[in-house]
């Protein structure tokens, strides 16, 4: 599994209430994405940085999703360019489900 962290600096600070509204309105775009296991929306405490943490089946699935259309959507919606970092995800502790997921090579 792969985790990607996407972040972007907003031109103006956004309140938590406004960010929640914006993010919630975009959730349908992520419900059926091939290879996407989970997504967390993020907003910094000062409201200037936003983004997401995505858990993917593979980096190939993530790369397929982060295409030019997606970059343009983010730029149009938030008026800034996203930055993506990728991380191997060998172990996940899920306290809510009471599970441990080990992704062995």
Question: Which labels suit this protein?
Answer:
105 residues; alpha+beta; Alpha-Beta Plaits; two-stranded antiparallel ribbon; 3 helices; 27% helix; globular
In short:
The protein is an alpha+beta fold and 105 residues long.
What does this structure look like?
The chain has 105 residues and is an alpha+beta fold. The chain contains 3 helices and 6 strands. A hairpin with a 5-residue loop joins strand 2 (36-43) and strand 3 (49-56). It is globular. 10% of the residues are buried.
Q: Which radius of gyration do the C-alpha atoms yield? A: 14 Å
Strand and helix order: EHEEHHEEE
CATH class: Alpha Beta
Strand order of the largest sheet: 2-3-1-4
CATH topology: Alpha-Beta Plaits
CATH architecture: 2-Layer Sandwich
Shape: globular
Provide the structure class. alpha+beta
Whole-number tally of structural domains? 1
The strand count comes to 6
Query: Which consecutive residue ranges, at least 5 long each, have pLDDT under 50?
Result: none
Mean pLDDT: 94
**Helix percentage:** 25-40%
Question: Number of helical runs?
Answer: 3
Q: Terminal Cα separation, in Å? A: 10 Å
Describe the main β-sheet briefly: 4 strands, antiparallel
